[in-house]
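Encode chain A's predicted structure.
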Amino acid sequence: NNGEFTDNAEGAEPELAYKPKKQLRTSADYCHPNSLEQNAKGGAGGRKLLLKTLPPVCSAPDIGVQWEVPDLEKRKTMNAMLLAGVALPTASLAGPFFKFLYPPGGGGDNRPQPARDILGADIKAGDWLKAHPQPGARDLAQGLKGDPTYLITAPDGASLMGYGLNAVCTHLGCVVPWVPAENQFICPCHNSHYNNEGKVLRGPAPLPLALAHADVGDNGTVFFAPWTETDFRTNTDPWWA
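Encoded structure for chain A:
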């Protein structure tokens, strides 16, 4: 179909001549001549064993393919974008993580703030002492920055102590309950113990409970104010200030 067949003179055995219409390339166009000679020697019986001999040593034709070299600058840009994509969410998580581990502070700004009860109403010293008359009672109120803070009834039962104790544990921020039977603050989370003044008796809490001034105003309202002077329990600077 790609060529034509022709006959010889009349009476003679026809000789078929194949005349291709277009030239077809063969492996010889791309193979080393020595390899073709080895293939042409043939095998037993004079038959050429082109399929049984080793294939010719051929080389790929030069078809003008241009191999593309990777762009180093583009790769650097992609690496920088990948790094930024990982760094930004990691940084956003790092802040809350370290805030969780760092001992929470108990103070607010330098202005006194009224102590409030469970309903958010300002605490009056007289009303509080009527409700908590037991000497040495320690009961929770809302203190600076809204932190739970213990108001302490004086030993005479007729007044309040001049300081309050922030109830936030200095280990991991749990609210530490007062246990009258033990005369201690005992954290239920990891069993840290504080004495009745908030000083650490047993860890893992690393620091004492934060102090706040507790003063009674002219109208009888109880106020909390930041404690910035020396901690009387440890004779050191206040860690929360």
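The first helix runs from residue 33 to 40.
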